[in-house]
Amino acid sequence: MAGWKDYLKLMTGLTHTLEELTRVEQDKNDAVSQGNLIAVEECMKREQVLSLSLRGYDQKRDKILAELGLQGVALSQMETHSPDEFQMETKQVIEKLRRQYKLFQAASETARNTLEINLRAIERMQAVQAGDAAEAEESRKQHQTDFRA
Question: For the segment 14-41, what is each residue's pLDDT rounded down to a tens digit?
């Protein structure tokens, strides 16, 4: 029974990670809409960290399913394979995970679409920023004093 509890705990943790990823996608969408490149980059860094976390969940899930003798069993079938005393909890955990995954997919799709729409504007802003940096460097060079004697 400890193995099944570990599985449910893992699925609950995965749900929380998806909640966090959904917030990141929403933040990214807001940042893109506002043209805030620094915030977009921060969101992308957070996404990468959470993606690594998802890989860890996947590996742990595979290990637990192997221990339970349930390799290859789909999430949708886990309720039927759960011990009787865990069926209701399994159903609730799986439903919550599915709902959160759908929310994540929607937020991710929205952020991706917003990013694609605003990509040209972002590229122009980056070019302006790069140009401003080059202008500042040129100005600095022009205002340098040569003290060679």
Answer: 999 999 999 999 999 999 888 888 999 9
Structural Rg of the chain based on CA atoms: 24
Please tell me what DSSP assigns to residue 42: H
Amino acid identity, position 130: A
Q: At what angle do helices 87-142 and 37-68 cross, to 10 degrees?
A: 150
Do 96 and 13 meet the contact criterion of CB atoms below 8 Å apart? no
For residue 7, what are its two tokens? 């599985």
Contacts of 125 (CB under 8 A, 6+ apart): 35, 37
| Closest by Cα among 121, 132, 136, 130 to 40 | 121
| pTM across the whole model | 0.76
